[in-house]
Amino acid sequence: MHRFQYAGNALHCETVDLAAVARLYGTPTYVYSAGTVEDNYRRLAGSLDGLDVQVCYALKANSNLALLRLLANLGAAFDFVSGGELRRVQAAGAKVNRSVFAGVGKTEADIRLALEAGIFAFHVESEPELARINHVAGQLGRKAPVAIRVNPDVDARTHAKITTGKSENKFGIPLAFAAAAYAAAAKFPHLEVKGLQMHIGSQLTAVGPFFEAVEKLIPLAQQLQRDHGITYFSLGGGIGVVYQDALASGSSSWWEALPPDQRPITPEAYGAALTPLLRPLGLKLLLEPGRFMVANAGVLLARVEYLKRGQGRNFLILDAAMNDLVRPAMYDAYHEIVPLQRDTSRRALKVDVVGPICESSDCFAKERMLQELGEGEYVAFLSAGAYSFAMASRYNVRPLPAEVLVRGSNFELVTARESFEQMIAGERIPAWLKQGNQA
Ligand code: LLP
Q1: Which of 119, 145, 99 has its CA nearest to residue 288?
Q2: Domains parsed from the chain with CATH numbers
Q3: Of 159, 163, 287, 309, most Cβ neighbours within 10 A?
């Protein structure tokens, strides 16, 4: 469920007319619905009924400071994968003492930063990493809390580039080696074994793979409770969202109209499947969702620059490009594209929706049926709250887009569009080059 809908013929976020946002702040601009994030958080945090759950939002999906603060105020902790992400959480005014540090390549500097900040645990992905964390903790005279990410070797049935729980992926320690890795961890003087971690992939649309993975890890969890006194089980992220029918999925009637076995994954279905498996363990549970928390809470607004009529093809050329939203170019991802001003009297046109960047992969959608649009009109890319701004770049020297947060009838700029001066601020021309000839 989300809070983007037409009121009359104007697309609104909560009760804000998105065309007003586009006119005021320009485009491309991301707009987020605080109410949708709140709903997502509450539904997921309550999904494992009666169990002790801590949601650690995976901020790689969207690390906007205002969103981090919103989630922290709701009770979320965080899952970070770099020193930079940890510092973003702190910059948002949130504590890190319930937060975890994931990722296969933690540097010594990152480990030191996290130990000094007093995080809840490191989610460790290899034996050399155990040794490194032990070493840094020893230098600081501390004990580092750790959990090992165990790879359960299940098929998450998602896009190949975002599946992580198969043995051919680089992530985690294979289940067969896990007991030995825990025994090794327990021998390090500066480590404290605290939990068990898994994460099998992203954009999972069914509960089955989660169930299978948890079921596979339960005997290990029980053994680790006995042998090492672990206190928590971290289930990772991965809950998928609706991209194809994004606008309609904002209403509960859309879900109810679907046959139950065809309904996309919901927190309720996730909880109903996993709670009976997890309850007997009596462990604290960590959930590390990224996409689920923010994807359907964000849209990207763009302006139509040209409608170019080609030979047998029409191109709708926008002012947003693959540098602003790379998911279609990178993963062939589908994002629903809708006009901010709907006009049912106009004919529908089949268009390729593209950006202005000089390469063919700068294409958001091929042969999409869209109401005929012209210069100066606006469109919104739906479900663009996750892995969208977070993956934006400055390719073609295009500034990072602006971000706006909506709450009810209010909206506020939370990230100003980057200026040209900010884009080049870190660069220097060496003195020896300045003496050279200029054309
Ligand atoms: N925990 C770990 C260890 C992860 O690697 C990830 C995501 C998450 C949690 C959060 O997963 P989520 O709940 O968001 O599925 N850029 C890609 C997605 C990459 C996901 C990477 N890891 C995309 O745009 O689809």
Answers
A1: 99
A2: 35-289 (3.20.20.10)
A3: 287
